[in-house]
Amino acid sequence: MIRYAAPRTTAEAVDLLRTRPGSRMIAGGTDLVVAARGGKHPLPESLIALHRITELGRQREADAGIALGALTSHAWIERSPLVRSRWSALADASAMIGSPATRATGTLGGNLMNASPAMDTGSPLLVFDATVELQRADGSRSVSVADLLAGPGRTTAAPDELLRAVRVPYPAPGTGSAYVRLDHRQAMEIAIVGAAAALAVRGDGLIGSARIALTAVAPTCLRVPAAEALLLGRPAGTDAFAEAAGAAADVVQPISDVRGSADYRRAMTSVVVVRALTRAAQRAVADTGPAGRAFAETGRNQ
Fold it and tell me: Which ranges form a coiled coil (predicted)?
């Protein structure tokens, strides 16, 4: 028989984690149910439901950025005018997850702690240098998303730690971002390959900063600094994007599965990176002067 608890505070939740080793926290439960039905993972002996903990469902804007409670739904992120305007890649990714019902139920914290290499929100959070707040009975700590993700289905959080919030700093002024993925269907699909990009384009049309992260081509979502470095100080356009995409494809570690072979994923990495960079640049240049606006019009007319 499964033991079930539904605490009303984070203090109660972390105390249950301490006193019931092996317990599994559940929020939307979308990944847990799918894995159990598919025979991938059996249901745990103890479930701790988090839906009654009000503070985990809150969102708060601060001077440094936005704090998203662990129970923030993908639907909230997808529809938030603030997220769509400042962290577009995260809104893009959230809009692609599952179905409307999945997005209304599934949570950002659950997506991160499930730690699938194909998670859509992971790469956007990497390009924004997001961090998570982990709480346990004796205190809390902050960990970057890059350091949280340890491998397929694994994080660096201790068994008695609860993810309370995801903190996403404001991007630099003039930054545009996008998330693009390759899949077989437009809904109820998992990424074959995905890419997030964040670019700041100066008024002269040159790239001032660049971030690229990849989905479903390594044991975790993956930043690619070597590809980012190739973009700095160059015109935002086809040549620079193709070179960076090639560098990104050189570092991936894909696997073959029912959705695609390793060779196919490696080849498609460069395709989705170019698409993500192009869309991010188009979003970045809206207020960066004549050179930027010319690039945006060119991109829209392609």
Answer: none
Query: 């670019």: which residue's tokens?
Result: 199
Calpha distance 194→119 (Å, rounded): 9
pTM, two decimal places: 0.90
The two tokens of residue 195 are 């890419």
Task: Report pLDDT for 238.
Answer: 92
Residues 192 and 115 sit within 8 Å (Cβ to Cβ): no
291: confidence class by pLDDT, cuts 50, 70, 90: very low
Is residue 70 within 8 Å of residue 165, measured between CB atoms?
Answer: yes
Residue ranges of domains in the chain: 3-169, 175-301
Give percent helix, percent strand, percent coil of the chain, each to the nearest 5: 40, 25, 35
- Could you tell me the fold of the domain covering 3-169? 3.30.465
Tokens for 12, please give them.
């109660």
Q: What is the mean pLDDT of the chain?
A: 90
Chain centroid, CA 80 distance in Å: 16
Report the percentage of the chain scoring pLDDT > 90.
77
Spatial CA neighbour of 49 closest among 105, 117, 128, 123: 105
Q: How many residues does the chain have?
A: 302
CATH assignment of 175-301, given 3.20.20.140, 3.30.390.50, 3.40.50.2000, 3.20.20.300? Answer: 3.30.390.50
pLDDT 10s digits, 68-125: 999 999 999 999 999 999 999 999 999 999 889 989 999 999 999 999 999 999 999 9
Helical spans, DSSP H, in the chain: 10-19, 30-37, 74-79, 81-86, 88-96, 100-105, 108-114, 122-127, 145-148, 225-229, 238-251, 262-284, 290-301
For residue 191, what are the CA distances in angstroms to 15, 194, 210, 254? 36, 6, 23, 12
